[in-house]
Amino acid sequence: MIRMYLTLAAMLWSQWALSQNRIQGTIQDAETGIPLPGASIMLEGTNKGTVSDREGSFEMAGLASGEWNLVVSYVGYEAGSYLVRLPQERPLEIRLEPATLTTEAFIVSGTRASATTPTTFQIIDKSDLSKNNLGQDLPLLLNYTPSMVTHSDAGAGVGYTGLRIRGTDQTRINVTVNGIPLNDAESHGVFWVNMPDFASSVENIQIQRGVGTSTNGAATFGASLNIQTDTKREEAYAETDHSVGSFATRKHTVKAGTGLIDDRWAVDARLSRITSDGYVDRAFSDLKSYFVSGGYYGDNHVVKVNIFSGAEQTYQAWNGVPESLLASDRTFNSYTYENETDNYQQDHYQFIYAGTWAANLKANFSLHYTQGQGYYEQFRPEDNLLANYGIEPIAIGSELISETDIIRRRWLDNDFYGAVFSLNYVSQNGRLDAILGGGANRYDGDHFGEIIWMGVSGDTDIRDRYYDNVAIKDDRNVYLKSTYEVKERLYLFGDFQWRNVYYRFDGINNDLRTITGSQNYNFFNPKIGLSYETEQGKTWYASYAVANREPVRRDFTDSPLTEIPRPETLNNVEAGIRVRKNRYQYGANLYYMGYQDQLVLTGQLNDVGAYIRENVASSYRAGIELDGALQLDSRWTIGGNLAFSRNKINTFTEYNDIYDENWDFVGQEATSYRDTDIAFSPGFVGAAVVDFRPIKNLEVSLLNKYVGRQYLDNTQQENRSLDPFWTTDLRLSYSWYPGFVEEMAFSVKVNNLFNELYEPNGYTFSYFVPSEGTTSRELVTENFYYPMAGTNYLAGVSIRF
């Protein structure tokens, strides 16, 4: 009996031990070796499965010895099946190949660079964005990409924020969402405050530096951002993200999706709210947004409808902090009226079709409509002459009142709609890849101002408009871009775009001048280049591109209508190398951007005293950009980028106002400069990121950013500049897989760890006044800055169901 019991126990022990085998491994991108978090791993013929963690690692326990078939899948990659023999001798290293272009991916391919395109670009995917997405606006999430400088009016990264790439401001950076133009048609700007938490609905972003490839909408005059929103998910999901931080910052996001229903239909939705008091006094933000997407996903055709909206209220911090107060009161805000706010809502509607029409032909067609409406409110205790509002002096008894306190609202009510398309043909031998694309869009904007309160009221009613003008802008373009494999791994690229812009405006401007006029432009924008792929995973490239750009709204409304500035032209040369290996990647490129007739502020006045922009005949930007990343081992990864540049205007003339002892304006004085730096164009920008994974599921990151000296105007004077700065952020993230939910991810980000006092943005102006006790004049310069917060934090938790 004892022998029988011992034999039975041994048999049971052996069966239990045999069933304790486990499969361990990592999932990586086959081309780059980058871990793929969230990959699905299933044992064929069973209901056992798991997903890879943030390091791409996975583990499945409780398995009997023998052979098992492992099925691995990941969105955007080819699924694979792998035979595993247990017990396992060593962990698996599974490398998934990127999937071929699907119909949904083709939605953005018409306006994007591909692996063989001879231009400078970088792709930031959802996982990279989510690491920092704790409430700050999209520009701040891109802060560590090459040649990038970001800024925030409120100083905390929430509210009005902006970015510059290679010194190029937002009005010269083309932005599209699913190939549809986002830039405001009149100002060419992008106002990220109107799209709060949009990063939570972004699949990836391609940043092209330089002219890049042809796109839709405003001219690419230094860089472009091509955004693709969330693509479908195979399985149903629900997520909720919550974060809190300094300055009473709060972010709450809820997302959910059906996954594929009947293998064909899917609906996804997001609802977000972000609030912050801001670092600057009273510079609060109250932001709301939603995103809804529904689609049909056939084998060869995709039809999607995207509806997204953003509503914002921000207290104005536009004036900045005067230099005299910067040391003593960095949070100073000159506005004190309780409702000195900006209020705007923008609603976007997109109808998108993408399909495979034949084995070598794909098509994309999109209709879009954007409706925006809002105002900013201002209390005007100064500059309040009734004549400035078209109101006659008010008679009270025998007294004539010509000025009084006023509260005004300046409105913008606009509609933007149109269509974009692209057709992609690939020859049967694969050597020719050609895209024919373009679009036609119309902007219809109404600008008007209202007086909603007066200290002393006269013959005017509330909501009376003291100015009102309308503008219509038609923007049409067509492009043909193609890549041809001349010989094995040598590619010839050509891209030719015709763009027509017709802009007309009519009415009374906010300075009460009558503005009526129209302008028509026809631009031809050619691009040519070569790329060569070596067998060692390297791509060499070189290209030449031309871009033309029309003046913006202020150039028409502020300049005398008989002296509209000339369009700008950019000639761009890019040359470099891209290398992608299993454990490292790097890139290096040289660029030259030569401008003809670049428009800059000079201090020159128009006939009613408004400052206008003028063409400067010749200017340029030239530099070298380096970037790379290296995985030292399973725990350490380092990466970063450097950009060295020279940014010059050959000849620049500055105009400064002259005032007499009574502060009456008496004229202007001109001063000429040669070979001066272009404003806001630092000669050096760098970033360095160190990632450390001390234990499973925990990542510690140190993020460093350096920006060299920026001049506030084009005179290259150090007393009109922003000091260089170096900031360091600390980020910690930990993922937990408790079983009752799919994942809980905890994040903490300490911004400006070492409490650097810095200002990435500002403005300046100078004027002459009489020198005390003499007959000569002295030049007075006033600088204003937008300071960023010292050490501050954001902490969040994300729950995936």
From TrEMBL:
Its main location: membrane. It is a multi-pass membrane protein. Residues 116-222 form the TonB-dependent receptor plug domain. Residues 1-19 form the signal peptide. GO terms for cellular component: cell outer membrane. The keyword Transmembrane helix does not apply. Residues 324-753 form the TonB-dependent receptor-like beta-barrel domain. GO terms for molecular function: siderophore uptake transmembrane transporter activity. This is Iron complex outermembrane recepter protein. It comes from Cyclobacterium xiamenense.
